[in-house]
Amino acid sequence: xxxxxxxxxxxxxxxxxxxxxxxxxxxxxxxxxxxxxxxxxxxxxxxxxxxxxxxxxxxxxxxxxxxxxxxxxxxxxxxxxxxxxxxxxxxxxxxxxxxxxxxxxxxxxxxxxx
Length: 114
Prior knowledge:
By secondary structure, the protein is of the alpha+beta class. It is built from five helices and two strands. Strands 1-2 form a two-stranded antiparallel sheet. Helix 1 packs across helix 2, helix 1 packs across helix 3 (about 45-55) and helix 2 (about 25-35) crosses helix 3. About 15% of the residues are buried.
């Protein structure tokens, strides 16, 4: 896969969109990442990442129903595209290959003397 890489935060955002599936909108994505990683996420950073991922063709958006709680504005929902799925799979397989290439002794120094 040529030049289709995800940064760490982009990967986390994509994974959160996948986890949330039909309920992936800004606030729910932010909460998902914060709850799972015990890490604060700024709205600005999240919105930038979502727009960047959409621009790359990894995510697509659709509007939900207008709600009173949002002053008549619809929620913007995100879904993973086929290209987004491929880049996530590539990212996962690359990480798995790297993990598999680490010798046991590198992560467990006690083995070195055995």
